[in-house]
Protein 1
Amino acid sequence: MGTMARRWTRLVGLGLRAYLSRRIARLGDADHWRAHTARIQLAQLRGLLRSAGGTEFGRAHGFARLATLPDADLLAAYRKALPPADWYAFKDRIARMREGAEPDVLWPGLVRDFAQTSGTTAGDKFIPVSREMMRSNFRASLDIFCHLHRFGASLPGLTAGRSLFLGGSTDFATSDTGIRTGDLSGLVVPMIRWPVSEIYLPGREIALMSHWPSKLEAMARACVDRDVRMISGVPSWTLSLFEKVVALAREGGRDARTVADVWPNLTAFVHGGVRYAPFEPRMREAWSGSPTGPDIPIRHELYPASEGFVAMQDTRGDPGLRLMSDVGNFYEFVPLERVNDADAPAHACWEVEKGRRYVVCMSTCSGLYRYILGDVVEFDTIPAGPDARGGGGPCRLRIVGRHKHFINAFGENLIVEHVENAVARAARETGWVVGEFTAAPVYPDPGAGRRAGLELAIEVRGEVRSHAFARAFDAALKAQNVDYTTKRTDDLGMAPPTVTVLPMGTFERWMASRGKLGGQHKCPRCANHRDLIDGVVEAGWGSGVGSHG
């Protein structure tokens, strides 16, 4: 990019900073969000009920009447009108909207866009994406730049170079009635207009590619000589891109050992979808050459979903994610232990408790109401109630797992957070450079001499001995979970965990074999069955490499 182009696109950042100045100040006012989040959220709910009052679903549940109730009565009446529900409660209506182009079913008017979700264990699901949801997501995306500015990034400095987005396949299908279906990023990319298009990478042609290995290769070739200053993507695929970019730079004669050598002006990495901690040593190594060296200067974690934006990091260096309370959606939280109950209670963000785990439940500006999202969260700070009294700060939460992703075959009660934390700790203690992983129960088979236990299948770089890692992994699980500790006491309830070492790329091959490669697709970190781990291990052994510990 020439000097003139850099000077011109820098103006985009200057304009963005000026446009967002009031929002930046508001986001920095923690006391405002402590005091007013409850009232803001009730206003979002009332707006949803008013908007959807004339729809088929709204008429069936009395939304127009509910919208007239005072704040003191609104939430209880809404909860009485309909229970929390999963996607299957909306499935038939969504099918009529998507396949029959029926208007006014769940949301007013005709919803023309549907996001195809990326689950690995269930069949495809289709999520309505209304025009209002597009605006909601756009507002959330502007908040990313607000927080990057608050974290110390120069917006003119970022836009003086290029921003690279590693979305999923942006190809989508359009029906005879004009209904579009595809990856959420596929629905958004065509909306990128000037002047943002001047800094956007990899470009629409590459973004439209659906074959992920070819797409990564094309992306690396298109970007290796560009002045990339911001990257957005999931850590696993970003690492794959980094490896290709450094290799291409060296092939081109550049003295490049790290990503910093290729893209010295790279300032910000925006990521979400999976926890960062298990990837952090590899990201640091890719950036600075050492697993314990510096990381990309600014990281910003997001909690996006096809159903709507949920939260994003609001404090540099703090993993807490602030609830997106004013972008058109209403959030509730169902206690994890009650999520499968017919009369499961739900709590607003000011009604939750620290130290308890909750499943996220959303009412969205696309026509999903009291929709069980499935992510399990804990709260770091809880805002005041509608009276604005008390409260510990803005609503901040952390994702600790998925309510369907757990291991409890023998009463061990392990969740994703336990497994991820244990892998990260064991990797630090052993010096392993790890990739993807998943865990599952080992069922006893007395005839084969196999006892009840736990297996971890994990990608590792280089030759390693798994015994030390297994011991550290076991100790880290015990440190987090009293039920696991009880089962492991004197090896009576469960045998020591087994670690199956797999070569890097095993999970990628397994995902590719299932047609789930790239973008938002990811393998669950744990499951209460062996279907996933057996498939992954088979993919690893099929490569001719692998070992049991």
Note: The domain at 1-317 is CATH 3.40.50 (Rossmann fold).
Protein 2
Amino acid sequence: MWQKLANIDRRIIYALMILVIALSLIKPVGLAIVPTAETQRVYDFIDALPSGSIVYLGFDFSAGGIPELMPAAHSLVRQGFRKDLRFICAGMWVMAGDMADTAFSIVEEEFPDKEYGVDWINVGYKPGGEVLLQKMLSSIYEAAVGRDHYGNDLKTLPLLNEAPTIKDTDALFIFVTGTPGERQYIAHVSSPHNIPLCVSTISVSVPELMPLIQARQVHAGVLGMKGAAEYEVLVGNPGSATAGMDAQSFSHALIIVFIILGNLGYLLTREK
């Protein structure tokens, strides 16, 4: 028996791992999630913005960042629209427009009174990298060559008249997985013009972000899937990040069980 435990077929391990993850995602248990101070700071900052404030959203990531960043984006849209905030979306990454479109896909069902062009704008991806940020400091319309992600003339969208440049927004909230990312916003927009910056990033990028938070160059951050799950809990809409944390927790527990069984099997068979 112990010999078998010391040499468990890897196919069994993979099958059980797939089963545990699939069941956790399909039917989340809802393990307790206690928001950390960092995520609470993000929530409190958004909650403190006056009604009608305009927030610039930077969707600077691609499809690989969706599992960790999109739940945070959905939570921000929910919290913001409940507060009657307004959003201007853009990005330096090619999929910026598509990511913003996905983030605001919940609006039609959950906030039917919100109107595109009045309550939010999706400028989408525009080439140029950090040069785009420099151009938006003088004119979002010119930086975007006059068109939004859907091909609409930006002059026909009333929200842009209230914030014709990125300097006219009340806060920045960006979703990033790499470069260009938070450092470009700090260098060109938030620090020179004293605009508060919040960042949502993937787990592997948290060590790079923390020094910027500690230096107060970033006001607060949603840190990886765990942070996104905490944000979902604070907003009151547990979703894919919360289910993802269930899957992560149970898969880690399964790995620990296999490690214990493997070591027990090794020790007991060695004694024989």
Note: The chain is about 55% helix and 10% strand.
Protein 3
Amino acid sequence: MMKQAVINFVKKVSLAELFYDLVFVLAISRFVNIFEHDDHSKIVFQDFLKFGLVLISLINVWVTKTIFINRYGRDTFVEKLFMLIDMAIIMYISYSINNNWEESFTRFNLAFSFIVFSFVAQFIYFLFANKEVCEYRKAFYIHISFFSVIGIAIVSISQLSYSIGIYPAIVILIITWLVPHFIRFIVKEKPINSPHAIERLNLLTIIFFGEMLIVLSHYFEHLDWKGILAILFCGSLFLYYTLFFDNMIDHHKGNKRVYWLFFIHYLIFIALSLLSLDFEFSIHNQLSSTLIWVICYIALIIYVLCLFVILYLFGKPKYRFNLIYIGSTLWILGFIFGIGFINIGYLFYHFCLTSSFAVIMVIQLYAFIYSKKRYSKTN
């Protein structure tokens, strides 16, 4: 019992961590550059693949840093110095995000190798400076070796041409995404502090919502009614997210499961980024109305299902959804998606439908939470 209490104490998110997150505001805002062609050609499917690779690469950096601080961070001066170095590298990486990968491939990968070697330096520093890590030395040795090999591999890949180097780069990305999370099965590692991890993920999610608001600000130059509906849509999606985490999620549940929370949030970040990009596409008429509508609902399905899975894994027992609730939610989603094709070319109509869907979802969830709380009081 005492061990569980130690693991689940509420570790405070430091101001340095909040400051570190700010650099991802820049990085996220650069995603749209992937879809801007110098020759003004059409957006193709490969652009979305590039977007996915870049987003996962950047979130990998954030997750690695966050888990490291979660386990061993003490908010010291040296830690803050490492954060500033990492922020500078991420800013450089951000300006390598564009559609012309043939030119930026070397620059992008070299910058990533720098941040990987920065992680190596941080592990080495903590190994000698922090006495608390003595019982986790084997894990540190594995992390140092792993990131050293990855850093050298990325430097080697950066010297290849884009047409050849992109394939080993994808393999390296997948390895760096998955392997660090499974090291804990090989050697003993310090458990992740669940409340801190959840708060950090919540804060990064807010940054993705912030990017959506920046895109939507375009509609307020001349007070377009589509902007009012879009803000209603964005705000409702955010309220939907907060209702889950403020009321229904157990922040101290399952330290081993918390890895799944990170994986699921990758999909949430992809969904929110797709919605932001979808608004960009509609503003600049970069895609057909049909594709804009389909992308919007693919993102919404991902977003809703991810929150359902989080509730299943981390939810308080009394807030578990039954099949009727899940089925009705998916039916509403499918129904609104279907009637969207009735007048597919009318953008204002789509804004009305999506904002209505988001509001209905919030009302439905709030009513569910209220009924469960009321039932608990009467029993």
Note: Confidence is low (pLDDT under 50) at residues 1-7.
